[in-house]
Task: inverse folding
């Protein structure tokens, strides 16, 4: 029998989103095909990059060549499965490191990861390619602005968001100009850059897209119905939202969402599985893209696993498809 491909599965990360990475890790570990691959889980933390063996020995990664030494044997990897939400697994940093070492990985490349981690740069590139996005302003901590002037340049209501954040932390919906100052303060608390974006009314859809055998495939998509004013942190992680997979929509709308999603995947030269958030505006009859998540959540209850099941695939088949796609880059 030929040797199984050796896969490093990365979890953790340096941001608050590490907590969510560990939840994703449970699903990935339960479903990754151990008959097909030899898998080493590595916890990427600020205090080190750690692997713990079956008998409880913890050993650090040699960052010179991304290798481990386990029971006296050196282990190198054929591909990396990136399961880190937030920095450094979703923003291009680890991608750049693996590119330098020539080790293939399952996510978008360094440039796409860095670009899509910046919400404003994402919508700017999308707009240039004819994808509908909301009008917005990009603010920087080093250039303070008058909140009332910000409010006057866009049509209210607007969303005020940390530009690089995730999980809706530090985000507000502003209905009145006088609430802008507080919203900006809250967002700048999380990030040096803030995006102020016009509210798009409509139904919210989020869609997983991946590539297998070189072909771009969309997953059956989800409608998100928030019980809060928008899909905020509580709505996302504390059950205050309803997610309907597959969304119940007219085929003509579904086709517009799928084709916009495929187009986004192509324009951004994505790789692996990404999840793209859209608002479908009925008046315009068009989906508007909000953002691209290049390392979408994989916990049991997360949206991508729901969509994979709705497609009739097992998660095992799905993760194998992602790993095989990365191995083919070798
Ligand atoms: N321009 C907008 N119009 C309407 N709803 C929005 C807009 N921007 C954000 N939202 C709402 O806020 C949620 C979170 O925003 P998003 O940009 O996806 O950031 P996050 O990284 O926190 O998921 C969305 O899922 C949506 O419910
Ligand atoms: Mg989102």
Result:
């Amino acid at each position: 029998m030929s040797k199984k491909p050796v896969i490093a599965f990365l979890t953790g990360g340096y941001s608050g989103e590490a907590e969510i990475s560990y939840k994703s890790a449970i699903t990935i570990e339960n479903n990754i095909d151990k008959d097909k691959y030899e898998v080493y889980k590595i916890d990427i933390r600020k205090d080190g990059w750690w692997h713990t063996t079956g008998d409880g020995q913890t050993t650090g990664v040699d960052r010179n060549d991304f290798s481990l030494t386990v029971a006296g044997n050196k282990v190198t990897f054929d591909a990396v499965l990136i399961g880190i939400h937030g920095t450094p697994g979703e923003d291009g940093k680890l991608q750049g490191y693996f590119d330098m070492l020539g080790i293939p990985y399952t996510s978008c490349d360094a440039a796409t990861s860095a670009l899509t981690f910046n919400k404003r740069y994402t919508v700017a590139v999308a707009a240039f390619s004819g994808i509908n996005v909301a009008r917005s302003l990009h603010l920087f901590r080093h250039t303070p602005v008058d909140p009332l002037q910000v409010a006057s340049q866009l049509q209210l209501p607007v969303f005020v968001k940390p530009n690089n954040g995730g999980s809706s932390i530090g985000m507000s919906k502003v209905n009145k100009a006088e609430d802008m100052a507080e919203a900006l303060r809250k967002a700048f608390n999380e990030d040096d850059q803030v995006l102020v974006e016009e509210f798009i009314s409509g139904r919210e859809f989020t869609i997983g897209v991946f590539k297998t055998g070189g072909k771009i495939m969309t997953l059956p998509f989800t409608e998100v119905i928030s019980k809060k004013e928008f899909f905020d942190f509580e709505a996302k992680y504390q059950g205050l939202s309803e997610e309907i997979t597959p969304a119940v929509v007219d085929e003509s709308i579904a086709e517009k969402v799928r084709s916009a999603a495929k187009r986004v995947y192509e324009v951004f030269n994505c790789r692996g599985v990404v999840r793209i958030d859209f608002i479908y505006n009925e008046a315009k009859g068009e989906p508007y893209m909000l953002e691209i998540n290049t390392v979408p959540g994989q916990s049991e209850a997360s949206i991508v696993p729901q969509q994979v099941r709705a497609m009739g695939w097992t998660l095992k088949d799905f993760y194998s498809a992602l790993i095989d796609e990365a191995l083919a880059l070798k």
